[in-house]
Design a protein that fits this description.
It is built from three helices and 31 strands. With 433 residues, the protein is mostly beta strands. The chain has one domain (36-432): Neuraminidase (6 Propeller), CATH 2.120.10.10. Strand 4 (37-44) and strand 5 (50-56) form a beta hairpin. It is globular, with a radius of gyration of 20 Å.
Length: 433
């Protein structure tokens, strides 16, 4: 296909709509000294703009091992064309990595993104600094840092990152404190139902230790945060990297990475305005009985609930989608689906976890993390990692997690691929938007 160039504001856009998807960020075209990419996220907001986010791994891997940057690309025509050049959101500074302190500006990774549906405001939450989540040296006194980065022009330009580490960790100090935490990369969820003040509520799910996931929410688009369920709430104590969604009645879902399943829980409000309510119990969704099942190699995916019409009888309902690899390892990313036709399908977390109806296989090769959102044209934006490229290894820097700079880490990443699907395609014609 020939490329057709045209301008939108100050950006150069290029037609890149191919049947097999559009690679927005490429690792395979690089090399041992060219930054790879990981951690896709996608959001559709005000005016139908699509924003795709990624971590540019200048050091070759996660924050804590060196410099990492957050970057985005934009589309204003439902993904048919994308900005040719990536836009820097926040760039790390490798010179700040040391074994004494954890400066926030050392790295910005695992971006979690949301665009407000009524404004041109965009928020990215990133894990920052130079600590490694899983290391014992990362603790409440020396934590993973959490940065908030904001745009007020739809993602074209970005403000200086703001350190929200203590504001978020402090929410749990009086209940079940955090030693380490970061917001699950990909998409931050914005409510379709709950609006308190000027903004619809947003929800961010934390990968945290000890005691698994927590959920925080904000009614001012990420300027201040609250703990959903309170400081002692443990919605998914065995969870890893999580995401949030919302049932049609405003109840909040957390869906978390686990081996061979997704771990789910539901929060029901007793007072939505104040955030009061309660969590149910952590429950496994194994999608048993289908031809495909979640991979035994845990990988994070996305949940999305969309309004739909059942093709067989024209009944209006909702369909819940869950993306996750379905191979023996990190491969064969697919989208599971289930109809939500009445209260029995979603009366509690056990009902939601059971009775999934089918699965659509997106990838037939190595494929990892994924993100979804609903486009303005009614199609489903799907942004995922495919084709892991390993370029070699690099020495670990001197930092708080590696005081002597010992060892090496892999230098690898993926092709970050955008595709757009009709609901009919995903569900084999059973449902349409």
């Amino acid at each position: 296909m020939k490329n057709v160039l045209f301008s939108l504001g100050m950006l150069l856009f290029t037609v890149a709509a191919y049947a097999d998807g559009t690679v927005l960020f490429s690792t395979a075209k690089g090399g041992i000294d060219v930054p790879p990419y990981r951690i896709p996220g996608i959001t559709c907001g005000n005016g139908g703009r699509l924003i795709a986010s990624a971590a540019r791994l200048v050091c070759g891997t996660d924050p804590g091992y060196g410099r990492v940057d957050c970057v985005v690309k934009l589309s204003d025509d439902n993904g048919r064309t994308w900005s040719e050049r990536e836009i820097d959101v926040a760039c790390g500074d490798a010179s700040l990595i040391n074994n004494v302190k954890t400066p926030m500006a050392a790295a910005y990774g695992d971006p979690a993104i949301v665009m407000d549906r009524e404004r041109n405001e965009v928020l990215i939450m990133a894990v920052a600094g130079c600590t490694v989540y899983g290391k014992a040296s990362t603790n409440r006194r020396n934590p993973n840092l959490i940065a908030a980065i904001r745009s007020t022009d739809g993602g074209l330009t970005w403000q200086k990152p703001i350190d929200q580490t203590e504001a978020i960790y402090g929410l749990f100090d009086g209940g079940n404190p955090l030693d380490a935490a970061f917001i699950g990369g990909g998409k931050i969820f914005q409510s379709r139902v709950v609006k308190v003040g000027d903004y619809y509520r947003i929800y961010a799910a934390l990968a945290a230790r000890p005691n698994g996931n927590r959920v925080i929410y904000s009614d001012d688009f990420g300027r201040t945060w609250h703990a959903l369920g309170g400081a002692a709430a443990l919605p998914v104590p065995d969870g890893d990297e999580p995401k949030c969604e919302e049932l049609p009645d405003g109840r909040v879902i957390i869906t978390s990475r686990a081996s061979g399943c997704r771990l789910l829980n539901i929060y029901t409000y007793s007072n939505a305005a104040t955030g009061e309510g309660s969590w149910e119990e952590q429950t496994k969704a194994t999608m048993s009985g289908l031809a495909l099942a979640p991979s035994t190699n845990p990988t994070n995916g996305e949940m999305l609930i969309v309004p739909a019409v059942r093709s067989s009888d024209g009944r209006q309902l909702h369909v819940v989608l869950q993306s996750v690899p379905t191979g023996t390892g990190r491969n064969n990313v697919s989208i599971f689906y289930k109809e939500l036709a009445d209260e029995a399908d979603m009366c509690n977390v056990k009902a939601l976890a059971e009775g999934w109806d089918g699965c659509y296989q997106v990838s037939t090769t190595v494929s990892l993390y994924s993100s979804m959102d609903l486009q303005a044209d009614g199609r489903i934006a799907f942004f995922y990692e495919e084709t892991l490229t390993k370029w070699g290894t690099k020495p670990n820097p001197v930092c708080t997690s590696f005081p002597q700079g010992e060892g090496e880490h892999n230098y690898d990443g993926c092709e970050l691929v955008y595709k757009a699907f009709d609901l009919e395609t995903i569900t084999g014609g059973k449902y349409k938007m």
